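Worked example 2:
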Amino acid sequence: MKEYQWQSERLETAKLKPKILSIMPYITLKHISIFIKQMNVAVLNISMYFFKHPQVTQHIDMAYATLKQMLNAQPKVTLLLVHDKLVYNGNPLKIDNLLSHQFIHNMLEKGIEHISFYAGLSRKELEDFLIALSATKEISMLSSRSLTIGKIKVNKAIDQSGKKDEPESEWDLKNQNSDVFYHSHIKEIKEAFDSIKYNDEVNITKLSLIAGAIATLIHSDKEPIKMLAAIREMDEYTFTHVVNVSILTISLAKSLGFTGHHLHEIGIATYLHDVGKIFLPDGILNKPGTLTAEERKITEKHPIKGAMRIMKLKGIPKIAILAAMEHHVKYDGTGYPKIKGEYTPNIVSQMISITDTYDALRSSRVYQEAKSTEFANNILISEKGKSFNPLLVDKFIQLIT
């Protein structure tokens, strides 16, 4: 009986046509309910067909048309998930159909409690969001310029009228102080590394939100070097370096044309690429002098250890495993771990190798002073065709200068 109800609901909603007039003076709960139905029909069809299938395209078009009409009426539409209830404009939505319940289930599964759609949102942004939401396993969820997702963070401050502030996205960057923004990111990454070290589960969704936040800043024309400058005023340690590399790599990837969930997965790969170092003894990791042959042998095992450890994490993008293993493999196939035959690392690993080297040279460490930008650039240029992909080096130097 339940299966019959489900199929009936699907068929009924699959025939749904946009019911909102092109001129909409205000948004009602009925408009929101129609939009949620349309989004979920699109998600269901994506899970059954290739996302470029004509039927999928049709349902995404319908959902986008409805949303666009709502955003013509007001510049922002926000949906909150409070416990298991969808809330719009302070009003719980009456969920009386299986499709809307499925939408709530997908949000819960992906750890999403807050979605905001902004005027100017493109169809591609909505499509990327629905594709990620349709995945049967946990996958990167990306915020963008006109679509933000996150968890609800209630500000308990009360104004003079006695009314509590409205819940806001945990990763809403518009009103955040840059110090708070970077400190929170570094703290979250440190917690992820600790979880990996002690064999606990890692909240991949939370790492995904950090990647989305950084990508959003970069998408808003925030220069990567200015972002690094804000971090350099803080502590210089492993987790700061990880955030630096993430900012630089996402910036480079975006300049090469990576978008959507691909850009997001690259962000996660940068957070975890050097995770194998948590298994190195402190005496080796922070040694001020030259490593002995035995110490270097131990150090060169960290890429494989890191890759094997994160391979066990649920929902991890495959590119993160590759990046962890390959980030010390040079463009010409040398480096470590040693791989037999002709071998070229994945392009994401090649990007991380460049940004990792650049930031390492520009950072103060126990065994070296920070080098100048000119010095770091010259090192990259001198290793073109050997350690680094020449085209990526040129693009990276162009980006940061």
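The longest helix spans residues 29-48. Residues 2-169 form one domain.
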